[in-house]
Automatic annotation (TrEMBL):
<feature type="domain" description="Glycoside hydrolase family 2 catalytic">
    <location>
        <begin position="5"/>
        <end position="109"/>
    </location>
</feature>
<dbReference type="GO" id="GO:0005615">
    <property type="term" value="C:extracellular space"/>
</dbReference>
<dbReference type="GO" id="GO:0030246">
    <property type="term" value="F:carbohydrate binding"/>
</dbReference>
<dbReference type="Pfam" id="PF02836">
    <property type="entry name" value="Glyco_hydro_2_C"/>
</dbReference>
<protein>
    <recommendedName>
        <fullName>Glycoside hydrolase family 2 catalytic domain-containing protein</fullName>
    </recommendedName>
</protein>
<comment type="similarity">
    <text>Belongs to the glycosyl hydrolase 2 family.</text>
</comment>
<dbReference type="InterPro" id="IPR006103">
    <property type="entry name" value="Glyco_hydro_2_cat"/>
</dbReference>
<dbReference type="GO" id="GO:0005975">
    <property type="term" value="P:carbohydrate metabolic process"/>
</dbReference>
<dbReference type="GO" id="GO:0019391">
    <property type="term" value="P:glucuronoside catabolic process"/>
</dbReference>
<dbReference type="GO" id="GO:0004566">
    <property type="term" value="F:beta-glucuronidase activity"/>
</dbReference>
C-alpha cells in the first residue's frame, strides 16, 4: 500500500485520504491463526493498514483514513457475499465486532497525539504495561 500511495503522490502531487479499507467478517467467528471472515482476520488487516497509514502520515503525505464500513448491510445474493456485506465494524443490529474496539482505541490515541485529546479512562485500562521480568534462576 505504501508504494501505491507514494506513486499516487508523485503522479498527482496531492495529499491522500484512504476512504475504504476493511475485510468481510462474521461476528463471533474466531480462529487462531486468523483466517478470512474471522474477527481476528479483520483486526489483523486493519493493523497492517494502520502501519502503512502511520508511516505515510509521519512523512506528511497522508491526511486521513475512513473504514469501510460502519455496519454490515444487506446486498443482493451472490457467491462473493455471506448474507450481505459483512465489512462493517458493527453488525446489522449495531453490536460491535472486535474491529470496532480496535478502531475506537486507534482514533482516541490519534486524537491524543495530534490534538492533546484526553484518553478515556476505559482505554487506559487496556493499554498494556510491560515490566522487565525479574530473574528467578541463573540466566547469566
Amino acid at each position: 500500500m505504501i508504494l501505491e500511495v507514494e506513486n499516487w503522490l508523485r503522479t498527482y502531487k496531492k495529499p491522500i485520504l484512504v476512504a475504504e479499507y476493511g475485510a468481510d467478517t462474521i461476528a463471533g467467528l474466531h480462529q487462531s491463526p486468523e483466517f478470512v471472515f474471522t474477527e481476528e482476520y479483520q483486526t489483523t488487516l486493519m493493523r497492517e493498514h494502520f502501519k502503512a497509514f502511520d508511516y505515510l502520515r509521519a512523512n506528511g503525505s497522508f491526511i486521513g483514513e475512513h473504514i469501510w464500513n460502519f455496519a454490515d448491510f444487506m446486498t443482493v445474493q451472490g457467491i462473493t457475499r455471506i448474507v450481505g456485506n459483512r465489512k462493517g465494524i458493527f453488525t446489522r443490529e449495531r453490536q460491535p465486532k472486535a474491529s470496532a474496539h480496535l478502531l475506537r482505541h486507534r482514533f482516541h490515541l490519534l486524537a491524543a497525539e495530534t490534538d492533546n485529546y484526553p484518553i478515556p479512562e476505559d482505554l487506559m485500562e487496556i493499554v498494556p504495561v510491560y515490566k522487565r521480568a525479574r530473574t528467578t534462576h541463573d540466566e547469566q
